[in-house]
Design a protein that fits this description.
Layout lengths: L7 E7 L5 H17 L3 E10 L9 E9 L4 E7 L2 H28 L15
Parallel strand pairs: 1-2
Antiparallel strand pairs: 2-3, 3-4
Helix pairs in contact: 1-2
Length: about 120
């Protein structure tokens, strides 16, 4: 079945100049999410550099995934921008797989009723 899904990827930089190589890096990493979850409508990635922060938390990456159902948000901090992007994709991937696992469990539960329980008699 050849189905083309059109996903929207929005990349923005806060106090950071987005180079073409950084944009393509984000697109390549986000393809992993689009490949295994086809119901993603939009992913918004915000990359932020705060030079006043300590070196270990200087770069922040925030992700917002719009999907059918409740949206998902994640944020990570790292000492390099590319590392922050990789950590963000890993975190979103874990969140999507957990969501899929919970939906699968919920889908396969049967709605059994315990009919042998004693109900109070009406007077």
């Amino acid at each position: 079945m050849n189905r083309q899904n059109h996903h929207e990827l929005i990349v923005s930089g806060i106090h950071l100049e987005l180079t073409p190589s950084l944009k393509t890096y984000v697109q390549e990493k986000m393809e992993r999410l689009f490949r295994h979850e086809e119901r993603i409508v939009r992913v918004r990635v915000e990359l932020e550099c705060d030079p006043k922060e300590s070196v270990t938390t200087r770069f922040k990456a925030k992700g917002h995934v719009a999907i059918h159902g409740p949206d998902m948000n994640a944020a990570v901090e790292a000492d390099e921008c590319h590392k922050a992007i990789a950590l963000l994709v890993d975190k979103l991937d874990r969140m999507l797989s957990r969501r899929a696992r919970l939906m699968k469990v919920k889908r396969h539960q049967t709605g059994r009723l315990d009919l042998e329980a004693k109900f109070p008699q009406a007077i």
